[in-house]
Amino acid sequence: MKRCVNCGEELPKNASYCGVCGTPVVNSQKTDDRALSTRRSLPWWGGVLIAIGVIAVIIVVWTQLQPRTVYVPTPMQPAPSEPAPAQTQTIRATMYAGAYMQVPSNPAKYGARLAAGQIVTGTMRLTGAYISNDWSYAVSLKVFDPKAGLAYTWSGTFGEGGAYREFSFTAPYDGEYTLQVQHWSYGARDLLIEIQPTGWSQL
User: How far apart, in whole angstroms, are the C-alpha atoms of residue 189 and residue 203?
Assistant: First the structure.
């Protein structure tokens, strides 16, 4: 039994409107057909979008479930240490007049004990006030060993401005070695020796 949705009047089975208030009668079967027709008219690409969305959700869930590799940075390894540079000993002395006026401070002597094969390197400088009688002055650096006597010599004649001399020798055996510097001049000279290895002491 159908009734009017507006006034509640009982309606005949096939009535299309209410005979009392004139309200059209809504046919539920037609409404269902229209809804079904609307659902069937969904465009084809709508289904494609839905499928893509479902696939995307599946991929995200699958990714989250995969075991993850945790990156742990490798600790920095210290660079290999380089051998410490050889120490340089500085020898300073004032050398007074040389061969023309003999004084105890000329020559200057220094000694050290060296191991066989040890290399001795260094530089020698000799500077000071220029004397008018010294047109030039001679300098010699000698290395003595206890067995062979005078073994190594570096010498030269220098004028105003001082001397600079490099020297190097290898100790032939274990023993005491003597380094001697002498100059020939009327005036005093300042001696500066830089030598490796260290351990030389004044004799």
Answer: 19
